[in-house]
From TrEMBL:
Family: Belongs to the short-chain dehydrogenases/reductases (SDR) family.
Keyword Oxidoreductase: yes
InterPro entries assigned: NAD(P)-bd_dom_sf, SDR_fam, SDR_oxidoreductase
Keyword Transmembrane helix: no
GO molecular function: oxidoreductase activity
Pfam families documented for this protein: adh_short
Protein name: NAD(P)-binding protein
Coiled coil segments of this chain: none
Organism: Aaosphaeria arxii CBS 175.79
Keywords, alphabetical: Oxidoreductase
Amino acid sequence: MASINASRSSARQLVWLVTGCSSGLGQQIALAILAHDDCVIATARQLTDLEYLNTIEGGRERAYCTSLDVTNPCDRIHEQLKKAIAYFGRVDVLVNNAGFVVSGVWEEVSDAEVRQQFETNFFGTMKVTRCVLPYMRNARSGVILFMGSIAGWHGVGAGGPYSASKFAIEGAAESLSKEVSHLGIRTHVLVLGQFRTNILEESRKCGTVDLIGIQEYDAIKAEMVVRHKKTHGKQPGDPKAAAERVLDIARLENLSEKERIGLGLRVPLGSDAIDVIQLKCSKTLDSLEKWVDFAHSTDFPISEHLPSYAM
Ligand SMILES: NC(=O)c1ccc[n+]([C@@H]2O[C@H](COP(=O)([O-])OP(=O)(O)OC[C@H]3O[C@@H](n4cnc5c(N)ncnc54)[C@H](OP(=O)(O)O)[C@@H]3O)[C@@H](O)[C@H]2O)c1
């Protein structure tokens, strides 16, 4: 394990590791980190996409740039991150930001497309997380942030691969938080609404959504394609403002008393995130009320009192 390299980071500064800093939210988070005098290990698939960090104040001293494709094998990611973390001597905050969108209806998307989605959004994210955990566990401190989505609360028609990958992140992060909170490691899923990045740009998206497939799915695919076209560039969320709030969550700054006390696993970002989560919760509670007797009908007449999962 690397020892603290005091010459490159002071105890007062947080050392962040952010994946996918070439654009969008990752880029804004890297810029905000430097603006707040912290240090960043910024990763991108193409190292040249990180050149912007050299041109800003503090970039040369407080940014360590490295190329990282999160779909690389675990051993390779581990070696790359070991070198990067040794540069500052520690890692305090991990932002699992890298991700992209695969669209299409389940009957039409290929197995390869679904796997590609999970390789980045889920397996890649968890590989990076597992590489960073030993450093945080040994330090008995750290913050791990996951980029969740309203699509991980509301299964999007013709957007199943992306939704499924974000639902999976919710489950993994929830388990992780229970495993590591006693080690001084905080885990949060940032449940993002729609933010104005290039995520919906045609060249960035993958999947099968052309209207030459199974005719019965034309309407739902068309609805999704039109929604993406109408939304791209007009999303209500400001990535720069989101980046500031991401720093607030990690640094526990600029939070009201209510927010500080109520800080749990999930942190919504964007007014649309609140709307989607509220609707999902109220619909789920309404439905549960109607199914209580039905659910109870499958229990043995007498059953022991067992440890509960509802914790
Ligand atoms: N914008 C939104 O409305 C929104 C909403 C909910 C959640 N999110 C989540 O927020 C995160 C950032 O998205 P964004 O909106 O900022 O989109 P973005 O501008 O397209 O940025 C995505 C980043 O992920 C990187 N990436 C993609 N595949 C990668 C891989 N295999 N290995 C390493 N990096 C990879 C991209 O790098 P390249 O440049 O090399 O492709 C890019 O840096 C994603 O996890 C996304 O799912 C965004």
